[in-house]
């Protein structure tokens, strides 16, 4: 997986960890250039499973993770075409972002968001896509679409469904109120709070990258299907995954490295 430097984001791979950084001024508003780069990123992580084991998504900008959709771009485009064409353009944009979020969510790699500053609207929903969220306590977050007379449209409702109580999701969607990283933790939207989200995300990613990659991927497959499956189905898949792992070269290496008190060397 080669590194990449785009208009809106960049990434690099080191020691099994992909670090993707958002850096579109003024505050990582999600526009067409962001979506172009996100599609490249999604394709890159899909093709890097033999090299990468974990992904960190964060922002290089002081303002925060993302202020949401680039409403100025969407408004400008709506003025350039007739009403029907504008609606189709928005629909196409949303379908593209849905595909990107699905790839990130379904990836066999562990994904971690390190969030600071603001995460509003589409930026908030982008932060919900990864497996794990490490959030600064003073982060300001909001399901902000109602401010503009809209609804969450970047898979936010699907993502919130697995994290929030239904009534809390409704309150945030209906009011658009801004809440802190500390409150996000109490609601279940943040995995943990940290005064150094990026540093702690990197430590976690390095730790995960040092585990048996076969077991990490199997665990993610099980967790991804567990939310919608019945108990019997979960237990069947659990047995299949464990059966495939036990005695495999990487599982044996996990045992031997622990017994010999040395770093493991895994094969992809």
Describe the structure.
The protein has helices spanning 32-46, 71-80, 83-106, 122-128, 156-161, 166-175, 181-187, 197-209, 213-226, 231-245, 249-259, and strands at 4-5, 9-14, 17-22, 54-59, 64-66, 110-115, 118-120, 132-135, 140-142, 179-180, 192-193. The chain is of the alpha/beta class and 268 residues long. The chain folds into 2 domains: 4-208, 2-enoyl-CoA Hydratase, Chain A, domain 1 (Alpha-Beta Complex); 212-259, Lyase 2-enoyl-coa Hydratase, Chain  A, domain 2 (Orthogonal Bundle), CATH 1.10.12. The strands form 2 sheets. It has a 7-stranded mixed β-sheet with strand order 1-2-3-4-6-8-11, sandwiched between helices. Strands 5-7-9-10 form a 4-stranded mixed β-sheet. Strand 1 (4-5) and strand 2 (9-14) form a beta hairpin. Helix 1 runs parallel beside helix 3 (83-106) and helix 2 (71-80) packs antiparallel against helix 3 (83-106). The chain is globular, with a radius of gyration of 20 Å.
Topology, please?
Blueprint: E1 4-5, E2 9-14, E3 17-22, H1 32-46, E4 54-59, E5 64-66, H2 71-80, H3 83-106, E6 110-115, E7 118-120, H4 122-128, E8 132-135, E9 140-142, H5 156-161, H6 166-175, E10 179-180, H7 181-187, E11 192-193, H8 197-209, H9 213-226, H10 231-245, H11 249-259
Parallel strand pairs: 3-4, 4-6, 5-7, 6-8, 7-9, 8-11
Antiparallel strand pairs: 1-2, 2-3, 9-10
- Taken in chain order, the helices and strands follow as EEEHEEHHEEHEEHHEHEHHHH
If you consult CATH, what is the topology of the largest domain?
2-enoyl-CoA Hydratase, Chain A, domain 1
Compute the average pLDDT: 91
**First-to-last CA distance:** 15 Å
Strand content: 15-25%
The secondary-structure class comes to alpha/beta
The stretches of 5 or more residues where confidence is low (pLDDT under 50) are none
Estimate the global geometry from the Cα principal axes: globular
- What is the class of the largest domain in the CATH system? Alpha Beta
What's the β-strand tally?
Answer: 11
Radius of gyration: 20 Å
Tally of structural domains: 2
Characterize the main sheet. Answer: 7 strands, mixed
């Amino acid at each position: 997986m080669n590194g990449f430097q785009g208009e809106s984001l960049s990434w690099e791979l080191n020691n099994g960890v992909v670090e993707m950084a958002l850096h579109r001024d003024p505050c990582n508003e999600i526009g067409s250039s962001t979506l172009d780069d996100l599609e490249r990123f999604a394709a890159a992580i899909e093709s890097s499973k033999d090299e990468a084991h974990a992904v960190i998504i964060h922002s290089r900008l002081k303002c925060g993770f993302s202020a949401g959709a680039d409403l100025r771009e969407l408004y400008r485009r709506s003025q350039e075409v007739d009403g029907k064409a504008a609606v189709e353009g928005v629909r196409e944009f949303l379908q593209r972002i849905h595909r990107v979020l699905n790839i990130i969510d379904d990836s066999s790699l562990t994904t971690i968001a390190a969030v600071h500053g603001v995460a509003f609207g589409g930026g908030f929903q982008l932060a919900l896509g990864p497996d794990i969220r490490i959030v600064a306590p003073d982060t300001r977050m909001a399901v902000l679409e109602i401010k503009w007379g809209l609804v969450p449209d970047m898979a936010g409702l699907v993502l919130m469904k697995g994290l929030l109580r239904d009534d809390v999701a409704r309150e945030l969607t209906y009011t658009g109120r801004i809440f802190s990283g500390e409150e996000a933790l109490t609601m279940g939207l943040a995995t943990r709070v940290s005064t150094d989200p990026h540093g702690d995300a990197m430590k976690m990613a390095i730790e995960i990258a040092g585990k048996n990659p076969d077991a990490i991927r199997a665990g993610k497959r099980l967790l991804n299907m567990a939310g919608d499956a019945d108990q019997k189905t979960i237990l069947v898949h659990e047995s299949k995954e464990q059966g495939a792992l036990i005695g495999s070269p990487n599982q044996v290496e996990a045992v031997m490295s622990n017994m010999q008190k040395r770093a493991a060397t895994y094969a992809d």
